[in-house]
Amino acid sequence: MIEFRAVTKRFDDGTIAVNNLDLVVEAGTITVFVGPSGCGKTTSLRMVNRMIDPSSGTILVDGKDILSVDPPMLRRGIGYVIQQAGLFPHRTVLDNVATVPLLSGWSRSKARGRAAELLELVGLPAELGKRYPVQLSGGQQQRVGVARALAADPPVLLMDEPFSAVDPVVREGLQDELLRLQAELDKTIVFVTHDIDEAVRIGEKVAVFREGGILAQYDRPAELLARPADDFVAHFVGKDRGYRSLSFVDASGVEVGAVPLVQVSEAVEPSGEWRLAVDDRRHPRGWLAPGTTVDGPLVEDVLKPGGSLFEVGQSIRGALDAALSSPSGLGVAVDAEGAVVGAVTATQVLAVIEGLRESRG
Amino acid sequence: MIFADAFAWLFDPVNWSGAKGIPLRTGVHLLYCLGAVLGASAIAVPLGLFVGHTGRGGTFLVGGSNALRALPTLGLVTFLYLIAGGGTGPVLIALVVLAIPPILAGTYAGIQDVDRGVVDAAKGMGMTGGQVLWQVELPNALPLLIGGLRNATLQVVATASVAAYVGIETLGRPLLDGLRVLDYGQFVGGAVLIALLAVVLDLVLAGAQKAIVPRGLRLVGQPTGPKKGKRSQKLVALAAQPDSGGSTA
């Protein structure tokens, strides 16, 4: 647990970076600090491992005042991941990961053994350990950065915009990876980002900061989207917050209906309705438009590309998006293996959403 | 033909033996260079590391090293010689003064050049100030630091010739003698020897650089040491040195 008690940071030039911050980061959660630049989110994070010392106030980590601990010792017990990873260019990937164990006096072989375990944990092949940071992609460097921060198994992990320098596809993969790791490791994680989408995606609690280092709202992401505390937060979380808040709504109320199927590479009877083409594993391949005549076996060239897929068990946002993006208006529902189980319509999904709103009253 | 004369001088066995022979002069020349670069490193490397690491005194450092650069070496040698009344000290001190700015600049720039994110991460991992300096900043500063050493070495090799003005048997001797009696063969021969020495030393240092700089940094393909263009400028400067020295003497 990390506790900020009336913490203020005033820099030498008089600017107030953090203004009287009171906040509790609960143990075993991912808490995201988010806000526009200059809102004090990074300063708040860096005060936890004493990269910056507060001007006034107290910060407790697991009940202990951090100002009573010598900074290097304190930092060895707190994982730290930064933007661009900050890997040591002159050391191999394995030795980078072994940094903190070596600083703590482990033998080289034991530290390297531990480092190899961590590379595996963050999903990197062992042979990458012999390479140098410059030989890795941005996403791989970030994974190494995370492995390095976890090497001494610290209870607390500080992550300062760790994924903002990689492209969106890689970023999403890294976010998933972090959530997977967290489910396994149960660390207390403070994560700084300027990206509200990232914040609501990975945060169990989100602290929105505004300029002048003031905490504007501290809440669960669903609450943040549904009930922003004021205009600043409402504006910051963005225009489509109503849609995005659906990410936190369970889709179990949506009934998955039947969908007419046709099999790829088999003969097809003409029909006046949309039909979903599947392969022999029942994976969706595309839509066959009404009235399309097919001579001989069905080839994929005549199919219209499908929309996004709704994996049963996902949020209602996935169900709605599948329906909206499908050329037929039928959102394709699949199981965990990607096989088609049926379809949902936007009307169905909206009815469920309306029902939920009314029941909330 | 000047070059034929130089060739003849270089291969005349008379010039390869005795107290005034080429081997001994080369040895003396080398010793002065070695002493100067080592002496300058002893001062400039720690100072550059300190200023680069703490970030304190950068302005002083740049101003001071520019002031050193502005000192004419020949003037300094003559001045110290007159004060000290002879000996090897004046020449050595003047060469040390000449070698300090490039080494200082290389060391300081090397430390400053280390990615701030890398230093931030090192601190954040729990390294003490000393550990950050020795384990992270210094290894990453090596390419530029050694570049500074190579620069200093080239300058010192060229300039150690001035020791001949105060009677020391360096490779500057043939330049002075040749100029005095208008024996251009000897003059050019001496210049060629100095240039060769500079090239050989630079190759040795380039090899050392390859051996010392961590592999992870060499993969980056950072610029290391003096560039080709710079080096040829140095060689031009070498040849010009005794001439300009003569006019100020």
Automatic annotation (TrEMBL), chain A:
InterPro entries associated with the record: AAA+_ATPase (IPR003593), ABC_transporter-like_ATP-bd (IPR003439), ABC_transporter-like_CS (IPR017871), P-loop_NTPase (IPR027417)
EC top class named in words: translocase
Entry annotated with the keyword Transport: yes
Known EC number: 7.6.2.9
GO MF annotation, one: ATP hydrolysis activity
SUPFAM superfamilies reported in the protein's UniProt record: P-loop containing nucleoside triphosphate hydrolases (SSF52540)
Record's keyword terms, sorted: ATP-binding, Nucleotide-binding, Transport
Domain spans labelled ABC transporter: 2-237
Similarity annotation: Belongs to the ABC transporter superfamily.
Official protein name in the record: ABC-type quaternary amine transporter
Taxonomic source organism: Umezawaea tangerina
From TrEMBL, chain B:
Region (Disordered): 223-249
Positions of transmembrane segments: 30-52, 67-84, 91-111, 184-208
Protein's UniProt keywords contain ATP-binding: no
Signal peptide: none
Gene Ontology process terms (BP): glycine betaine transport; transmembrane transport
GO cellular component: plasma membrane
Localisation per UniProt entry: Cell membrane; Membrane
UniProt keyword annotations, A-Z: Membrane, Transmembrane, Transmembrane helix, Transport
UniProt keyword annotation of Transmembrane present: yes
Residue ranges annotated for the ABC transmembrane type-1 domain, each copy included: 30-205
Primary localization class, coarse: membrane
Domain of life: Bacteria
Record-linked PANTHER family: GLYCINE BETAINE/L-PROLINE TRANSPORT SYSTEM PERMEASE PROTEIN PROW, POSSIBLE OSMOPROTECTANT (GLYCINE BETAINE_CARNITINE_CHOLINE_L-PROLINE) TRANSPORT INTEGRAL MEMBRANE PROTEIN ABC TRANSPORTER PROZ
Entry's family note: Belongs to the binding-protein-dependent transport system permease family.
Protein name (database record): Osmoprotectant transport system permease protein
The species this protein was found in: Umezawaea tangerina
